[in-house]
Specification:
- The protein is mainly alpha-helical.
- It is built from nine helices and three strands; from the N terminus they run H-E-H-H-E-E-H-H-H-H-H-H.
- It has a three-stranded antiparallel sheet with strand order 1-3-2.
- Helix 4 (90-111) runs parallel beside helix 8 (180-198).
- The longest helix is centred in the last third of the chain and has 24 residues, at 202-225.
- The protein is globular.
- Mean pLDDT is 86; it is low at 1-17.
């Protein structure tokens, strides 16, 4: 094929691979900054500024932003802006978490190694000391625990979808503080999940994972309704 352009069935040319690679790199870098809140919700994203800072043309930047828009991480209204998640979406976020984390935990029970189980149990045991740590540290440990389990599924689509639900959950900045009793129950649920993973019991692991997310949903919903 001349010029290295692959033809589609209708004989329309595709973009060059080089442009696709640049767009993928820009997307990955922007996505990471958005998901970690290095670029905060509500921030305006100016194509020229991104092009200059990353030393790429505007075409891959535009393609990357369109992909981020498709993922629900940015929107376009008089310019590009990082999404701010409305608290009214809380039920949708938790419904997504139940579905994704539930089955990802099911699969993780079939694929996790003994070393993986030890790492997860260590995280759960570290969270037992929640009274001596700040809320930010506990949140970080909790996120690592859930991210690790989803990652152990070995399914990159689960990982990507989970990252998006986590972004929208933390993006809401919910004014919810767990009581001591609720924190204890949450970590006991963590340990039951680890026990089921160690036993290689996917159905039980999935059930415990779903129950854990549903419990958190009830706590958050009750706090918001109160």
């Amino acid at each position: 094929m001349p010029d290295g352009i692959e033809r589609l069935p209708n004989d329309r040319p595709r973009k060059r691979v080089g442009t696709d690679l640049l767009a993928a790199d820009v997307h990955a870098r922007l996505r990471a900054k958005i998901l970690t809140f290095e670029i905060k919700p509500g921030t305006r994203l100016v194509e020229d500024e991104i092009s200059s800072s990353l030393d790429v043309g505007r075409t891959p930047v535009r393609e990357a932003l369109l992909r981020l828009q498709g993922e629900g991480l940015v929107s376009r209204e008089k310019g590009w802006v990082v999404e701010c998640t409305d608290a009214a979406s809380i039920d949708h976020v938790f419904e997504s978490r139940v579905a994704i984390e539930g089955y990802a935990t099911h699969v993780a029970a079939l694929r996790a190694t003994p070393a993986d189980i030890r790492d997860l149990r260590a995280l759960a045991e570290e969270m037992d000391g929640f009274e001596a740590m700040g809320r930010a540290q506990l949140n970080l440990l909790n996120r690592r625990f859930h991210e690790r389990i989803v990652g152990l599924s070995g399914n990159p689509f689960f990982v990507e979808m989970h990252e998006r639900t986590q972004f929208h959950y933390w993006n809401m900045r919910l004014p919810v503080l767990f009581t001591r009793e609720q924190a204890v129950v949450a970590n006991e649920q963590h340990k039951r999940i680890v026990d089921a993973l160690e036993a290689r019991d996917p159905d039980t692991a999935e059930r415990h994972a779903r129950e854990h997310v549903e419990t958190t949903h009830r706590i958050v919903r009750d706090a918001l309704d109160g």
